[in-house]
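Possible regression after last week's pipeline update?

I re-ran a chain I had predicted before the update to compare outputs. Posting the input and the new output here so someone can diff against the archived version. Not blocking, just want to make sure nothing changed silently.
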Amino acid sequence: MAESTQIVFTHKEVVEALLRKHGIHEGIWGLYIKFGIRGANVGGSPSDIHPAAIVPILEIGVQKFDAENNISVDAAKVNPNSGRQTTSTGGTRSRRPKKPR
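New output (post-update):
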């Protein structure tokens, strides 16, 4: 079997992963994408040029939503608070301080 060269995610899967990465456990959050737009003259040859728009993706993130839909999820359902907090490096730490020995 050939090795896969692409892994594809749904919008909701991307949102869930970002919520887990940032330790978000409350609220309805959805996918946020910021686009830019630029113009250029492009073509296959110098005699076949056409004006074109180039639309790069500038930022990908999450934003608060009022209700769940096809690009948003409820953080309490997909990333329930287990009493452990995710660190910025992806590890976890307990919220309760350790008892002295």
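Follow-up from reviewer: compared with the archived run. Residues 11-33+59-94 form one domain. Marking as no regression found.
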